[in-house]
Specification:
A two-stranded antiparallel sheet has the order 1-2. The chain starts with a helix and ends in a 6-residue tail after the last strand. The protein is mainly alpha-helical. It has a domain of 66 residues.
């Protein structure tokens, strides 16, 4: 069960920032073309550069947020797991758990 949760958390972290730089550039160019700028002009290049930087920053912020969420989930799971284990109390010459002593 713990291995499955760890694998799922790892997959979430790896897929969080799955927008590639090429996809970011394509999106930036599409945005500039949609706003009426012609490819090859200085205004288009500036627009594409600014939008590309914004897309990459947004992708990085998303990846960081997911990584923090996955880490918080792992820590929370460890705390819950530790809290739910049975408590064993040591007494001289006797060992006890919740149900009996021997």
């Amino acid at each position: 069960m713990i291995r499955i949760a760890a694998a799922a958390g790892l997959m979430i972290v790896l897929l969080a920032g799955c927008q590639s730089p090429q996809q970011s550039m394509d999106d930036a160019e599409f945005t500039c073309e949609a706003s009426g700028l012609r490819p090859g002009t200085r205004a288009f290049e500036r627009c594409a550069s600014v939008n590309y930087s914004y897309n990459r920053q947004r992708s990085q912020d998303t990846a960081n947020a997911v990584a923090i969420g996955a880490a918080a989930g792992a820590i929370g799971g460890a705390v819950v797991g530790a809290a739910s284990t049975p408590r064993y109390y040591y007494r001289p010459y006797r060992r006890c758990n919740r149900w009996r002593c021997w």
